[in-house]
Design a protein that fits this description.
CATH architecture of the largest domain in chain A: Alpha-Beta Barrel
Oligomer: homotetramer
Subunit structure (chains A, B, C, D): Homotetramer.
Radius of gyration of chain A: 25 Å
Keywords (chains A, B, C, D): Flavoprotein, FMN, Heme, Iron, Metal-binding, Mitochondrion, Oxidoreductase
GO cellular component, one term (chains A, B, C, D): mitochondrial intermembrane space
CATH class of the largest domain in chain A: Alpha Beta
Cofactor (chains A, B, C, D): FMN
Subcellular location (chains A, B, C, D): Mitochondrion intermembrane space
Shape of chain A: globular
Helix content of chain A: 25-40%
CATH topology of the largest domain in chain A: TIM Barrel
Amino acid sequence: MERVFSLQEISQHNTKDDLWIVLHGKVYDLTKFLPNHPGGQNVILKHSGKDATLTFELYHSTDIIDRFLPPEMYIGQVEQAYGIIPSNKSDENQEQQQETQEEKRIQLARETMPPIEEMFNTFDFQSVARHVLKESAFAYFSSGSGDDMTMRENHNAYHRIWFRPRVMVNVSHIDMTTEMLGAQVSFPLYISATSFCKMAHPEGEKVLARAAGKQGIIQMIPTLASCSLNEIVDARVYPTQLQWLQLYINTDRQMTQRMIQQAESEGVKGLFITVDRAIVGPRGKSANDKDMFEDQGGMEKVLNHERGTGSKTLPSFVDPSMNWKDMAWFKSITKMPIVLKGIQRWEDAVLAWRHGCAGIVLSNHGGRQLDFSPSPIEILPEVIDALKREGCDPSKDFEVYVDGGIRRGSDIFKAIALGAKGVGIGRPALYALGCYGEKGVEYLLNLFKTELAMCMRLMGAPTIKDIQSDMVDTRNLKNHYVANPIDYLAKTTYERLQPRGNLSKL
Amino acid sequence: MERVFSLQEISQHNTKDDLWIVLHGKVYDLTKFLPNHPGGQNVILKHSGKDATLTFELYHSTDIIDRFLPPEMYIGQVEQAYGIIPSNKSDENQEQQQETQEEKRIQLARETMPPIEEMFNTFDFQSVARHVLKESAFAYFSSGSGDDMTMRENHNAYHRIWFRPRVMVNVSHIDMTTEMLGAQVSFPLYISATSFCKMAHPEGEKVLARAAGKQGIIQMIPTLASCSLNEIVDARVYPTQLQWLQLYINTDRQMTQRMIQQAESEGVKGLFITVDRAIVGPRGKSANDKDMFEDQGGMEKVLNHERGTGSKTLPSFVDPSMNWKDMAWFKSITKMPIVLKGIQRWEDAVLAWRHGCAGIVLSNHGGRQLDFSPSPIEILPEVIDALKREGCDPSKDFEVYVDGGIRRGSDIFKAIALGAKGVGIGRPALYALGCYGEKGVEYLLNLFKTELAMCMRLMGAPTIKDIQSDMVDTRNLKNHYVANPIDYLAKTTYERLQPRGNLSKL
Amino acid sequence: MERVFSLQEISQHNTKDDLWIVLHGKVYDLTKFLPNHPGGQNVILKHSGKDATLTFELYHSTDIIDRFLPPEMYIGQVEQAYGIIPSNKSDENQEQQQETQEEKRIQLARETMPPIEEMFNTFDFQSVARHVLKESAFAYFSSGSGDDMTMRENHNAYHRIWFRPRVMVNVSHIDMTTEMLGAQVSFPLYISATSFCKMAHPEGEKVLARAAGKQGIIQMIPTLASCSLNEIVDARVYPTQLQWLQLYINTDRQMTQRMIQQAESEGVKGLFITVDRAIVGPRGKSANDKDMFEDQGGMEKVLNHERGTGSKTLPSFVDPSMNWKDMAWFKSITKMPIVLKGIQRWEDAVLAWRHGCAGIVLSNHGGRQLDFSPSPIEILPEVIDALKREGCDPSKDFEVYVDGGIRRGSDIFKAIALGAKGVGIGRPALYALGCYGEKGVEYLLNLFKTELAMCMRLMGAPTIKDIQSDMVDTRNLKNHYVANPIDYLAKTTYERLQPRGNLSKL
Amino acid sequence: MERVFSLQEISQHNTKDDLWIVLHGKVYDLTKFLPNHPGGQNVILKHSGKDATLTFELYHSTDIIDRFLPPEMYIGQVEQAYGIIPSNKSDENQEQQQETQEEKRIQLARETMPPIEEMFNTFDFQSVARHVLKESAFAYFSSGSGDDMTMRENHNAYHRIWFRPRVMVNVSHIDMTTEMLGAQVSFPLYISATSFCKMAHPEGEKVLARAAGKQGIIQMIPTLASCSLNEIVDARVYPTQLQWLQLYINTDRQMTQRMIQQAESEGVKGLFITVDRAIVGPRGKSANDKDMFEDQGGMEKVLNHERGTGSKTLPSFVDPSMNWKDMAWFKSITKMPIVLKGIQRWEDAVLAWRHGCAGIVLSNHGGRQLDFSPSPIEILPEVIDALKREGCDPSKDFEVYVDGGIRRGSDIFKAIALGAKGVGIGRPALYALGCYGEKGVEYLLNLFKTELAMCMRLMGAPTIKDIQSDMVDTRNLKNHYVANPIDYLAKTTYERLQPRGNLSKL
């Protein structure tokens, strides 16, 4: 027989060492789960002894409880007279007031939002998103690691590649179709996995599923989806629509296994294991910064740990012990092709090939993990070379994808020219989703398609196979130019050339 | 017997699928022409069922109808009581008000315009043009493709070339004369073809013809001239004045043939076939952006097309199927020397030589077509090298021109030093034309001449033949430096060195 | 029997050639010491004939008198009725008013100072320090030499190093412990010597000693400490806590010998001889600038000197004649390992190894001495290579440290990867000390630790030994990019791409 | 018997083709001289038919008339009742008003000018000069050619050279003395020739002579001095003080010969022939711009000329026909060592050596002649190498100087390290002269000396001979980095990292 708790009683379990929380009328004892929460401890502590349902729904699907929470943490029901659990009133009022103000700001921004036809390039969606999303959501999506070096470098690096266009080629017909893991797609781009899409749109990943389906491309479903796997799979617009699963390997391998097998049975066609997130990166702009310490177990724990006690204080959500030996087990529990997402050096690309992966994603997690990681496009040529030296033919045996910084159709062209099978996009889809919903995502995909088609025409490459490496000039690809410090004395004593006479008055 | 239509009747044919328009009292059914309009469909749709004469004249010469419109599209006359065709009044009022406001702004700008003597360099014309031209005209002229990378790179690249001046050379006499396609010119520069000059000046290309003639240089007549070919040819200031024709190859080859033969019979001395415009490029600043989609047949069509139906939806104005095999036919219908304009890699330069062209123009269409195309000056040295490897002597057998980014006399010097026969200018002539008319264009040409003469004197090269490749340092020509992302935290915590004490108060 | 002087009498010895000063009730004749004062002559002249105790205590420990002042300069006591020595009242009032104003400003700044939890990176401490320190203190700490080129380059250079992360490595346990001169430390960072810590905090170097001890790292004690050596040594939090001594070699070698032997007897475990300060560098922002001339003996003296008289006019505080022959004597008077601090080229690194040093610090004195000195991280790889060519194994025989510009955990990682045994920090510790005292320094060290631990995890290097040179991409390390002068005419005539339509109004 | 003219009569000769002017009561017919005026025709035309004495004295010494004006141009005296010649009153009033306003501005600026002690570096003088000089004077001094590229590059290039300091060297004694053309100087810097010093100071070059003498360095006297050669020579502070003469070769070789022989008889010890000014360069900021056309004979003349008439229209002041064959004649008329000033490529350096010159000055005329000329310091190493290949030892047989962009003592060090015998300064001396007169110039020279001495100490190079090429890192010297065009869309959608929370409010 199930226990029933009064609100009064629940509210007393509100400390780090005795922490209850109510979700959908059920009471959970999260004391032991606290250090394992991927989003940091603070957000849970803030709701300790209270009903956290509203906040929970903002980020998570209901099935996440079943997937990640050990069953023994469920301890009972809330009593019948269910209601708002008392809390520090003045705190809450202030918070509510702030929320109301932000809601007003957003409502106003949405009313004056430009019509979708004025989105002329993918950057425009981000400009709108800054205004119509909640501040915390925009900060979470747009933030990078450390000094944001890698995040910005990801797109910057494409600027170091110039074209070598061919003319006098018949480009009446452009065919952008290609294959990914054996399936045909309308053009070489997929929507990559990003966590917590509900922060952008109340229907979250379901919308991305529909837009991808209609546009004939693949959606990669995130482990940390805001919707349940069922919901996302059910959102397919036709039965054979393609979806992949992005996976964080949990310390509890049974959880991982359950998720893989559920996905496989639901018809998911590729397993993308994230390998660049042994720990969550320090994100400069996101509110999670303080949680960096928490994630490592708090400052004191870090200290003690680093002094050599060696106690394992990391959260269990992503297993930091994962290594190449785990590949055998992964392959034993699924028939889906396995792709490693987050490869950042050619040596690891070769290892992935040797361990029987179907491919890799060159990725640095959108610049959100380790600052000064190289941009995927920069290492792509050396990865392709290394694979070829190994006897692997990346045009058929093994698929190499890149993500991070794709903002123009010409970026896709450059990646294909250097040997990628396709590219993934993350933030642009979130911004389009957050601003204009499904229509926005379709519009964004069309922008990419139209720009790619135009680029192929003007480059003299009517099909994907015609896109060759001699069409790009990568001479400067590896060059990172850090400007000499500025000579302010010379700069400020120099008087700039300006139009003179009446011209200066215009 | 010709049919006559009432305004009332005409105004009912105002949809995409049933589209009539009145030009100079004649009624045309443009339903089938719509997707072929090089300027996009929108501008035609806006005038559907109405009299479009005023707008038409702003851009086009009357003979363009005969040249490009199939005769069967003419369907009759407007009835006697010809007048303004009714339209949505409030829309039109608003538009007219806006136009009146802009006219006032322009009138004021023209009244306070600096005297021409204050134009000290070619940039100054652009500064004035921004104020005295219509906003749409300035946007059309000044816009580039994508992120404007290539447009700006075109001039930027000249900054990567430094001089190696020779001193103690007798430079009392400077001789800038040279030959282009066998004819003598006063200095190695020609006015290149640019569409719709009437947006800059009511007499359009005729003014450029006169200025070029007076200065002893060649004018290249555009396919999309605002004046008719006859008018431009008639504007010659002396009978032997040299003109070339720039040509877009139409899907309807007969149209193309008629235009070539008309030009040849009018004494035009060179045929410059544009090869870098299989489709119009996406211009960031121009109002044409939305038309990018239209040009490709609208978003839905692009989608369907790219899904593999392969239906040809491109407009027929420029034939996207043009390729090297067409060269034989071109040569069969004209005796004019044929030059390909828009070559962007040495391999295509060699092909042009092999196919019997008289020369090439290294050009990326002023950065208006494919962003990240290389600047012509950057590829010039490798083109010259490749031609020499092929056994071609670019100093006599085959002429290599460059256009794009020429803004200083020293830019001309650099191009000549690297093997160009001459350079073409586009935008600077338009700005000079738009600001000061014929006097402005002559003044501009004199600025170029004076700067080139001074440069030749100070370089110790008294004649064009003395301009040698060892006079320029091209060591950095191929280097594209993309700055590392900025370290804002370090930058903002650093306090700049500034003059101190009383000095800081000055 | 000791002489006693009246205030009246003292106040008459107030010129350059007859200069008395009172410190703690004692009268000193500093006429001969004046040119040897490391901080310049002006600050002493300002107090000539007066009681300088208050200002003296702001910078110096009491024992500095015994250490550096020849005993014969002490000439007697002040008479009983000790008080403020009369001076130019109006001057003093003005000065006091200014000080009061600054104190108010600082008090206000401290009241609104952010809580320490908002320090998310090491730059944040500097931002706070600018507001809560005295202007003169912040100027002294933050200033560099000449145009501040080297000072900024020190951190900049780390941006030219990018990572090559390894994934699929078990990083459950991170061990950052390592050894320095044979002793274990919690992570590879030490607090380097910086002069006059009391300008940051009234307890000066004692606070650094406590923070270092608690965090398990080494403190390097400066020659120009504000506290006495005894005080700093006594501040150790446990008896075996490690400290090193930084040493300026005095012209009076007996002084030097006394200081070395005192330190050795107090248990100091390493002797770091500064070799990059034959003369104090010109610091652009510091108030010391005028003293640059003084240090060289005044403008006239410099002139006469440089004309060839060759008279030695340098202050004796740091011996400019020090050279490699002195190494034998240094080794003869101490058993402490000797490390040379301020090596800036590989040739000198090799010489240090040949002369039996225990190690070197690659350093340019934080960019405070010679502008355009290279950054330590830039020369580290060539130093390591040269040592290996010499048969020296820098991983065990000889220790190479770097300081200057360390601001991120990733900077430490990069230095270790390139062969450094550890890194020293200077300014960050001063800013943390000045803002939040001991808690601030500990917090700062934890930031470095946490960032390094995270970096090691994401790089796939769980221990210090796992940090290898193939994990960093140093291809651009030696590249100093000075931008071409800006083409202002082109820049100002180009109109930037901006979001358009309603988007531009957001 | 001399003719006498009335003012009335003189005022009627006021056109281009009949042009009289009064100077010091004498009447000159300048009709034929007009196109030869180095300062352009406009300034003379403005005074046609008038008394130009006041303006003349602002720029010229009286002896310039004897030196450069053919005697037959003197035509008589002004009648007794000498006075102001009538002119367009309203014009003159306006001009006078403007001058009065400027004088007021300058007087105010001089009253609030910082004390000389606040000049901490050579840039500071320029900051002051901008405020205390006449606008036209500052524009003339500070202007460069074209886009000011070369002018700025001259100093910029020194930033591409970094140091490799040696430590543990006895630097107690610094000896900066060296030899120039066989004579000893106090340090390796001379004051180069600059025209019209009176625009900076009423006593012009005489002040520079005194300051140079007191500081033991050489002054180079300009052809276009504001003072007469006698005056400048008489300003020597001791009889053996060294002076050189800078020479523009006149079309009238007798004038040139007279000037050389006068200088030689006055004890001038070196002849520096300027070879980089066949024509005056286009100076963007100077009011002379319009005169660029005049200098070339007016726009129409240029045109006609360039069309091939070949008529010589250049002014005769500097002979554009000067070439290597003239070397024999130069050597025949003087015993002074001959140095060519304005060499810009190694080939010409070798030619100068072969033609028996005593040395060369690598110079681009301070960036005032040909834009995109290389900086002297950049070509110095290749010049030294080429001379050595030729069998010439630049350390004794042949002296190589550099000028342009020297602003720091470290710049001098770098030039010496790369093989220069010494450096020349131009603008800094003018600014110091214009702000603080003789004291200012001495102060400036001391700044250079003190910075050089400090640099030598910290570099471990106690004498000039110790300054070796391995002390500088020139790896990036030849690298001209032109930044890729900026990606404004990406830049503006990126939100900068900023201090957060309360920190952002500081």
